[in-house]
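ok posting inputs for the 6-O-phosphono-beta-D-glucopyranose job
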Amino acid sequence: MDLRSDAVVLFGVTGDLVSKKLFPALYELTRRGRLDVPVIGVARSPWDDQQLVTTARKSVTEANNEVDDATFDRLADNLSMISGDYADPATYQRLAQRLRGAERPVFYLAIPPAVFGAVVEGLASVGLADRGRVIVEKPFGRDLESSRELDRTLRAAFDPQRVFRIDHYLGKEAVEGLYAFRFANRLFEPLWNNEHIDNIQVTLAEGFGTQGRAGFYDTVGATRDVLQNHILQVVALIAMEAPAADDTDAFNAAEVAVLRQIEPLSPQSTVRGQYAGYRDEPGVAADSNTETFVATRLTIDSPRWAGVPFYLRTGKSLPGTATEVVVEFKQPQRSLIPAEGGAEAPANLLRFRLGRGDGITMSIQAKSPGAEVTSRPVDLSVDFGAALGRRQEAYERLLDDAMDGQQLRFARAETIEQEWRVVAPILDLPAAVQSYDKGTWGPADADALAGGWHTPDLR
Ligand code: BG6
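and the output
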């Protein structure tokens, strides 16, 4: 068992990710008694300790409705700042000095990939890579080759066991719930195959645009931003076979096995869209061909899934925000009970709501009231927040795990390489993106792709 980290260093502490996710996570860990070690912020901006504390307080206040002063003060007492250039050796000397007493610091790289190399080398130059853990944020490169290159950079300095690659969807309790649902229940597993399932849809919809990150987003686009990572992780959890044992290696092996069976995506069954007005946003190229929407059809070449299409879509400025998996079952083998009004009965659906208000809705056919024996759809629904109480935030769990040296909820290099292999044929397509109006479900061609998308339950 690895020993817990005794210091946290946040590179890129002035950035968006730290204020939106990491300060609230550090606060929550402090509240739960899981964090009482130095937290050092590093950035190029000339901040002092007070600015760091003020920013942390603001971000914790925005994330939680109320802040417990005693808890925040405990966190604030641990915070300190180092301002310096990532290319300047003096930055790392000061950091090494500050970390004199720490045996297992964890370094969080919340910085653009372009400076990863400089930071990793800087840490290695003062001996910190030998005893530290490193957490890297996506995007892991831009394609298969650059992700391998990034991996070589990290491995040159850090032992692979001490590299933690974040795909925060793996840290979401609702996403982990897909795994629990499948393997903790007997009910659905016998049906989980091409004999009973017609198709599976995964939607990651956002009712907002680039939220001030357009400059970054324009170099990335929806495929690299969420399809390659978050959505494929969800597909893997839905489609994987049961791991051979209850441990991290077996889980990873099962996940990689199913990813290997996914056919590379095809440009012919992919629709890329861009919302109208995107090109006018600051930081976006006037002739940008970056997709803010992508819909595609994925197939898995395995006995379990042959013939079952997985329809995937994600986009910004859609009608609302929701992450969902909808499993659509086939019709009964014999249709004895006509649907009310004589139409074909809607299929049974299992809807996993993975975002806000997470839970499960199962749509089944029930007898309609009256003398006739006909059926009508009804929903059986559970809201996990109401049924189970507060669950932890993804970043809170991931930081906690990395400090413990636990790899289970982090992406393996091999997983990421498989994900790049799958999306490779649809990266940087030359065809022009199709425009769509904000507040719609993307270009019309995307509707045709699935032959009937299930509208997400927007909450
Ligand atoms: C991030 C993407 O990884 O995931 C964002 O960079 C996206 O563009 C976000 O909005 C979605 O995450 P969540 O947890 O809000 O569903």
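notes: DSSP finds 15 helices and 15 strands in the chain. Residues 7-137 form a domain with the Rossmann fold fold (CATH 3.40.50.720).
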